[in-house]
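In this section we walk through a basic example: taking a raw amino acid sequence and producing a predicted 3D structure, encoded as discrete structure tokens. The instruction is simple. Fold the sequence below.
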Amino acid sequence: MKKIVIYLYILAITASISACEKVIDIKVANDSGKLVIEGAVTDQAGQTIKLSRNVAFTSTNTYPAVTGATVSVTDQNGKVYAFTEGAAGTYTNAALTGASGQTYQMNVNTGNQTYTATSTMPLKVALDSITSADSDFGGKGKKKITVHFHDPVATADQYNFLLFVNGKQVTRVFTVDDRFTNGNDINFDLRTGNDDNDQAIYAGDNVTVQMQCIDHAVFTYWFSLQQQGTGSGPGGSVSPSNPPTNITPAVFGYFSAQTVQSKTIVVK
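The resulting token sequence is shown next.
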């Protein structure tokens, strides 16, 4: 099977990605106090939905929690899973384990307003391995991480990746679809930036990659953040810009039914 190597150059992200997806016009907001919802149902036990409020683009990334909300997820059979608030703004359910092919609806009620979103969990595509090599983009001794997997030919697939270096999440967004690589063996490079928010990778570092198989609406959300070069990975802070959301009425954030899997290596 033909192998495809995908090079992701963050500083030239618009040029490199626009060949795969139309350019999305992103309006950058400098206001504050808007609701942010970060929700996911995975194929692992235990689910989390986080509620917060955004801050101005010029402010520090401290996002006030939204407490006292009523949060639930309903599966396609009509079973409702209530989420309980633990830490401020963090709502969890330990009983729900998602499954590929199933559709889930999130319901959030806060401030006398109900917000809903639906997402269908794709089939899981196996993460074969992750490797490290000398980076051809960056300083001396810097390494890049490459994820290796086989994209199935029968479906349109979208992927999102989280990168952790020595236990700390890199804030770059790494997302890709199979529009031009359907059915191929994929080698996808994850390169960290040179700014203060990202971590360079060197020999001896402990690196973990989480691979998420996501639906198209959620891919569009992450792609738009990747396109503008923001540092907002899932599980981290949401950018104060307004990428396309699958939540109604529209707020910042997303709701994703996704498969997850991880691999860890020591960089050589």
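Looking at the output, two observations stand out. Residues 35-120 form a domain with the Immunoglobulin-like fold (CATH 2.60.40.10). The two ends are 28 Å apart (CA to CA). In the next section we compare this with other chains.
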